[in-house]
Amino acid sequence: MHGPAWPAWLLVALCAATGAYCLLRMRSGVEEQRRAAGGEALMGFGMAAMAVPATVFTPPGWAWPLYAAVFGAAALRALWAARGEPHHLHHLVGTAAMVYMSLVMAASPTAHHHPRVGGGVPLVTGVLLLYFTGYVLISGARLVPAAVAAGGTAAVRWGDRPELARACRLSMGIGMVAMLLTM
């Protein structure tokens, strides 16, 4: 990730913590939580690895195509899951965004040769920024009523609480916006 180091480290911490919580959610008694948590953990840790400041660690040239292959496989899995359950389309967009960022970084970490909007932002980056910004705003608005309603559910284990899963997805959406802004 390009730019100042301290925001990048905050993004690394946010994404790694989100990935760790998603790993814990994989132990949930709720099957849907377990299914979604694995992909979300991959996204969280992948985003954390990609957000490490370039001044601290520059991955070798083979790492970016490897990221693209891993997230490409995750995108295929999300596409397969989205056949019957449309809410998996967000996972498809997220993994496709990770493939896109990996390919851009593989091509050239400093120069971008993509169609641009208004002479500055690459077209795909702009579309992804619009999607994830909208996702963050809508998810944040939905999170508040869910957290208030869940306030009295003491019998639900903390790993099974839907508002915490939504908060995880919200934080990864915020992280994606931050990463796309540096593209």
Task: Describe the protein in words.
This protein has one domain. Helix content is 70%, strand content 2%. The protein is built from six helices and two strands. The chain has helices at residues 5-25, 31-51, 63-82, 89-107, 123-149, 162-181; strands at 116-117, 121-122. The protein has a two-stranded antiparallel sheet with strand order 1-2. A hairpin with a 3-residue loop joins β1 and β2. The relative contact order is 0.15.
Defining traits:
two-stranded antiparallel sheet; mainly alpha; 183 residues
| Number of strand segments | 2
Number of helices: 6
Task: Kindly estimate the percentage of residues that lie in beta strands according to DSSP.
Answer: under 5%
**Helical amount:** 55-70%
Distance between the termini: 8 Å
SS-based structural class? mainly alpha
Provide mean pLDDT, rounded.
Answer: 83
Number of self-contained structural domains: 1
- The helix/strand order is HHHHEEHH
Per-chain topology:
Elements (H helix, E strand, L loop, with lengths): L4 H21 L5 H21 L11 H20 L6 H19 L8 E2 L3 E2 H27 L12 H20 L2
Antiparallel strand pairs: 1-2
Helix pairs in contact: 1-2, 1-6, 2-4, 2-6, 3-4, 5-6
Q: Brief overview, please?
A:
This protein has helices at residues 5-25, 31-51, 63-82, 89-107, 123-149, 162-181; strands at 116-117, 121-122. It has 183 residues and is mostly helical. Strands 1-2 form a two-stranded antiparallel sheet.
